[in-house]
Amino acid sequence: MTNAKNVGKASFWERNRLSGGYLLRKKVIEIVVSVCRFILLFGMCFLILQPILNKISVSFMTEQDLFNPIVTNIPEHFTTANYKMASDVMSYPKALMNSIIISLTIAVLQIAVCTLVGYGFARFKFPLKKLWFACVILVILIPPQTIVSSLYLHFRFFDILGIIKLITGEAINLRGSKLPYYLMSATCMGLKNGLYIYMIRQFFRNIPEDMEEAAYVDGCGMLRTFLRIMLPQSKPILSSCFLFAFVWQWTDGFYSKMFLGSTPLVSTSLARIVDSLGAYIQRISGIKTTISVAYSNCILSTGTLMIILPLIVIYLFAQRAFVESISATGIKM
């Protein structure tokens, strides 16, 4: 064993001498690149994990620990009362259930309609196809805040070609209900729908058309070919888009405040947690008190962890499928 190592070592230095030092320079460069890569990856992981670890530490601290200069990361007086406080202020059980139902149904509806539209753009020819696809790109590029006034007026005085006003004498007010959001998602104007259409279109464009032609020869129609041939192959991109849709809907504040303001959700409840904290404490104690900034931030950090915890659980269960779908999508796109 020792002789083999000596021979290999001698062989390396001999080959390095014969190559004019090239092998040694190559080895040194590989080591330097590996060290730099490790430092960069460690720095990126630290930047991502450090705020989360800090929030976890703060969430278990009492108000006394927050003002103790000795306490930095490990609480001196460990407590779980902050989680109960945040849960009560946000109405967490009800908001959690509403968020699960709305995020799940909206995500399924968005992916269903975006799959049909993306497949149509990838496979069929129709008038003004490039113009309509340019509109899809505009949906991605233009922020929804620029059309907030139009959306408000459209659903505040909702009408279909003047038919509703002709029959009832006035337009319908859809503000404060879930229906406008479902209508927008069903017509591919919901949150990030343009991006899903683009991703699905790119995926279908990279599938050979010979498979569809063979299905047509075997007697399959367009719909059956789509359901039996194309959809099973599109599981990677559909799973990726579904997870994106669910997570973005879970943390969305713009559309939720506009259309679902009367429905308690985890995202909207977190946005109001600091303002609601003082009123909650006054209601249960009967005494008007001033909430310190440190304690308000502590409850805010606790509420943030309670919101991202379900997403972490989903990722743990869907990690393998999600990574595989991203890898397959990246190769084919």
From TrEMBL:
<keyword id="KW-0813">Transport</keyword>
<dbReference type="Pfam" id="PF00528">
    <property type="entry name" value="BPD_transp_1"/>
</dbReference>
<keyword id="KW-0472">Membrane</keyword>
<comment type="similarity">
    <text>Belongs to the binding-protein-dependent transport system permease family.</text>
</comment>
<dbReference type="GO" id="GO:0055085">
    <property type="term" value="P:transmembrane transport"/>
</dbReference>
<feature type="transmembrane region" description="Helical">
    <location>
        <begin position="31"/>
        <end position="53"/>
    </location>
</feature>
<feature type="transmembrane region" description="Helical">
    <location>
        <begin position="294"/>
        <end position="318"/>
    </location>
</feature>
<keyword id="KW-0812">Transmembrane</keyword>
<keyword id="KW-0762">Sugar transport</keyword>
<feature type="transmembrane region" description="Helical">
    <location>
        <begin position="179"/>
        <end position="198"/>
    </location>
</feature>
<keyword id="KW-1133">Transmembrane helix</keyword>
<dbReference type="GO" id="GO:0005886">
    <property type="term" value="C:plasma membrane"/>
</dbReference>
<feature type="transmembrane region" description="Helical">
    <location>
        <begin position="95"/>
        <end position="119"/>
    </location>
</feature>
<dbReference type="InterPro" id="IPR035906">
    <property type="entry name" value="MetI-like_sf"/>
</dbReference>
<keyword id="KW-1003">Cell membrane</keyword>
<feature type="domain" description="ABC transmembrane type-1">
    <location>
        <begin position="96"/>
        <end position="317"/>
    </location>
</feature>
<dbReference type="InterPro" id="IPR000515">
    <property type="entry name" value="MetI-like"/>
</dbReference>
<feature type="transmembrane region" description="Helical">
    <location>
        <begin position="131"/>
        <end position="153"/>
    </location>
</feature>
<protein>
    <submittedName>
        <fullName>Multiple sugar transport system permease protein</fullName>
    </submittedName>
</protein>
